[in-house]
Amino acid sequence: MQKLLKRTAQVQKQAARRSRTRSRLNASDQRRLLIGQHKQVNQARKELLYSARQALREDWQLGPLAPRRDVGDNAKTYGTVPIRVVQAVDNPLGKWKKWGIRVGDRVCVTGDPERDRGKIGVVGEVTEKAESCKVRGINRVNVPTPEYMKVQGRAEPPVQTTEAPIHLSSVRLVTPLVDPNTGIKRDVIVNELTLTPTGQRYIANYISPDTGKPHYIPWPPKQKPEYKDNEVDTLRIDVEKVTWTPTLLRAPMPSGVIDELRNKYSKFRTRHEDTYIEMKESMDEERKRREQEMQWGGGTPKEMLTPVQELNRARNMERKGIDDQDKLTEEVLAGIGAMMVRKGKRLLPKEEKVEQATLQPPPPEPRMEAQTP
Fold first, then answer.
1. pLDDT (0 to 100) of residue 199
2. Per-residue b/e over 103-120, b at no fewer than 16 CB within 10 Å?
């Protein structure tokens, strides 16, 4: 079982490593492609807006001499832009900067669009992924009324006016501040906001004359959404009704559903049936039992040699002059001990030699014989 778990973990690591390598290699190409597509979409949106506004301006300037361009399929939607133009496009890199602007803030347009530059309005919608916002009454464009908004029996205008998104880098927060010179409170355009890790915002280069500290700008209050009850809404009594009670006598799902989610013999599978686990554990126990039977007394595993290997080993030992049956006799042991004593006396220092001499056993005492009277 341990071998199976080890193989599963190894396969998962290899798959994750290959996935990381593949994603790292494709990341740069995908990033360049997304950035190019994002620029093309923004350029097409600007061209559509410019051409529609330019056509309306020419018709207004020429007056009765203007050419008849509101004919054919565009007779009722002349001068409008596709509805996709007023939809925010997400940042392709997936990284969004925190600009410190929320719905309800008063902002001033400092960049594109040029015709609305310098106007002040209230933010009505913020799209963080696209880093854009819609300001009420600013950057308004005409769009054709979508089909899903047309109700039978109700006269809907073919053209509607709505706000197009503005990038957050083109707007600046407007907040009332006290002038330190005159002491009069007036609206000021904040060029740069600083955000704290706790979610507060303040102006770094402005010190409040009242507190002597940086001036923290409060967030606009959140408006609670208004919910209306309709006839098709689910009643509260139906939601709170208990329709299923869990019990220990019945499993929440069939035991074989795991085989549908993951192949029974897949190398990535981590959960197995009890019978399969018992079989693997019994195999491990059998293997351990065999290893114990094949061990010497000292605990080292015994080699299992084939007859050919045993013959080769015997020939090698005979060629080297080694006899497996040779044993250490008493004469050989006595010679080894004498050699060890001679070399030990030569290598030991003087102090150790003295100690060795003092530690020698004393000579035997003479035995007393009994005297006869």
1. 83
2. eebebbbeeebeebeeeb
Residue 358 has a pLDDT of 45
* Cα–Cα dist 166/313, whole Å: 88
Which residues are registered as beta bridge partners of 182?
Answer: none
Q: Is the pLDDT of residue 261 over 70?
A: yes
Report in angstroms the alpha-carbon separations of 167 from 98, 108, 129, 173, 179.
13, 12, 11, 13, 30
CA pair distance 203, 175, nearest whole angstrom: 11
CA separation, residue 54 to residues 36, 50, 68, 75, 144 (Å): 27, 6, 15, 17, 18
CB 165 within 8 A of CB 132: yes
Which tokens is 155 given? 């006269």
What pLDDT, on a 0 to 100 scale, did the predictor assign at position 333?
Answer: 81
Question: Taking 50 as the threshold, does the pLDDT of residue 122 lie above it?
Answer: yes
Average pLDDT over residues 359-369: 52
Residue 2: is its pLDDT beyond 70? yes
Dig out the tokens for 99 from the structure.
């600009």
pTM for the model stands at 0.53
Which of 161, 83, 82, 165 is CA-nearest to residue 131?
A: 165
Q: 177 near 145, Cβ under 8 Å?
A: no
CA distance 57 to 259: 67
Separation of alpha carbons 142 and 236, rounded Å: 42
Check whether the bond before 64 is cis (ω within 30° of 0). Answer: no
Q: Where are the beta strands (DSSP E) in the chain?
A: 106-109, 120-127, 132-135, 140-144, 159-163, 166-167, 171-178, 185-190, 194-195, 201-207, 214-217
Encoded amino acid at 190, one letter: V
Range with top average pLDDT, 22-26, 189-193, 205-209, 263-267? 189-193
Dihedral angle of Cα 265, 270, 274, 279, to the nearest 10 degrees: 60
3-state secondary structure of 24: helix
Beta-carbon contacts of residue 200 (< 8 Å; ≥ 6 apart): 216
